[in-house]
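Task: sequence design from structure.
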């Protein structure tokens, strides 16, 4: 798939997965499909960071269900896409924290960040991130520079829009 096709697919996936009218338990099941499998880490990161990422994200995904939510008054999903090389140089639409870990990321995967916006463009939600195309499927690894430093993502202050079911 091309970058444009993957970006469109990510936008559609995020629009569906974050639908505010979706019951919370269905939203948790939908988001659970984005949980990384063991093999995904070696597709995304160079060793030894792949092993570290596997352990650290097991904590996020292994406790209570992760839920992505979009405020009802922010229906539009704006996405940015970048490869590791682009993240290393400060890709537009991405948090600067990616720069520190971009050298450990494999070059092929496409990372996605997003914001929700109102229809007229006056209000925007916070910058969210961590959706990544492994080459085979989408997985969600929010805020890798925080998780890989060993800090938890346990509340909405650390990653607004991601909560526990």
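Answer:
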């Amino acid at each position: 798939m091309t970058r444009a096709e993957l970006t469109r697919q990510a936008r559609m996936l995020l629009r569906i997965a974050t639908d505010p009218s979706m019951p919370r338990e269905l939203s948790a099941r939908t988001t659970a499909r984005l949980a990384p499998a063991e093999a995904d880490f070696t597709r995304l990161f160079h060793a030894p960071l792949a092993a570290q990422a596997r352990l650290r994200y097991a904590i996020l995904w292994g406790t209570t269900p992760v839920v992505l939510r979009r405020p009802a008054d922010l229906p539009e999903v704006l996405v940015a896409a970048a490869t590791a090389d682009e993240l290393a140089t400060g890709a537009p639409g991405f948090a600067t924290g990616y720069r520190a870990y971009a050298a450990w990321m494999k070059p092929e995967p496409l990372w996605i960040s997003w914001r929700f916006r109102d229809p007229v463009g006056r209000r925007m939600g916070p910058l969210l991130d961590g959706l990544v195309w492994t080459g085979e499927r989408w997985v969600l690894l929010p805020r890798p520079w925080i998780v890989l430093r060993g800090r938890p993502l346990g509340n909405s202050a650390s990653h607004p829009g991601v909560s526990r079911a």
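Strands lie at 66-68, 76-82, 110-117, 128-133, 138-140, 162-164.
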